[in-house]
Write a structure and sequence with these properties.
The structure is a single chain. 71% of the residues lie in helices and 0% in strands. The chain has 246 residues and is mainly alpha-helical. Helix 11 packs parallel to helix 13. It binds one RNA strand of 15 nucleotides through helix 1, helix 3, helix 5, helix 7 and helix 9.
Length: 246
RNA sequence: CGCUGCUGCGCUCGG
């Protein structure tokens, strides 16, 4: 069943809807019963096609097949709604989850926070963040912090992003490569190339390899700031460290 | 560890 699900998922990922349909029908042909994960893959397929009502109906029909929708089922739909800017629908579903017997986990919070930021709704993003902090069952993880830092930087909220960074460190979350590149890019976009360079040196001090992502962010930052000399300096160091991708 | 949901830069091509 795992192998079948993996292949079904591959068809979903590559938007081969005709094959999704025929391959799912094939489960029955060979006498294989779909499991919870199969349903979650199908839900993802409907979301990718923006058929959210069908996705919700499939989710609602799962109990009749003997399955209870789980965090993945809800997270998939929330993610699909959020990706398409339907954040109020996502929030509504999020709020219904407890009554439906599934408590939102940190991934669900991350999806909503990220979605509201990407829609430019800074206020609602913070509202969900506050709800997360207020709760006693779910706690921010490193991805939550990355999402917050990214959103705050894109809104130009430098001071707030520093607060979040400090909170992250205080709670024992180590920055990962996403954290660093998010901050470097965010600071560059705010015109704070020197701040970005400080993060860059912290990153190197923590033995993170400066990869193509961070270097690209810095290169464009230097260029936009008119600091062409440093641009070429970094470019040269990328060659010597072998991180220059073609 | 093995099938399913969340985060970062740039480039290319489409709308």
């Amino acid at each position: 069943i795992r192998s079948y699900n993996a292949l079904l998922n591959a068809f979903v990922v590559s938007n081969q809807w005709d094959r999704v349909e025929s391959f799912f029908a094939y489960y029955d042909t060979v006498g294989l019963s779909p499991n919870l994960q199969t349903f979650n893959v199908l839900i993802k397929g409907l979301c990718k096609r923006r058929q959210f009502d069908k996705a919700k109906m499939l989710l609602g029909g799962m109990p009749s097949h003997g399955f209870t929708p789980d965090r993945f089922s809800y997270g998939t739909i929330l993610g699909g709604l959020a990706r398409n800017g339907l954040l109020l629908d996502a929030l509504e579903l999020f709020d219904e989850m407890p009554q439906r017997g599934v408590l939102p986990d940190v991934v669900c919070y991350n999806i909503l926070i990220d979605g509201f930021f990407k829609k430019g709704d800074f206020t609602k993003a913070l509202m969900v963040w506050e709800r997360l902090l207020r709760g006693d069952l779910v706690y921010p993880n490193i991805i939550t912090y990355n999402v917050m830092l990214n959103g705050l930087c894109k809104c130009g909220k430098f001071n707030e992003s520093v607060e979040i960074w400090d909170r992250m460190m205080k709670n024992g979350h180590r920055p990962d490569s996403f954290t660093y590149s998010t901050m470097i890019h965010g600071l560059c976009e705010m015109g704070n190339v020197d701040g970005a360079l400080r993060i860059y040196s912290v990153m190197n001090a923590n033995k993170f390899v400066s990869d193509v992502v961070t270097c690209n962010a810095l290169l464009t930052g230097f260029c936009r700031a008119g600091r062409i000399g440093e641009c070429f300096g970094l470019w040269g160091s990328m060659e010597s460290s072998g991180s220059r991708n073609i």
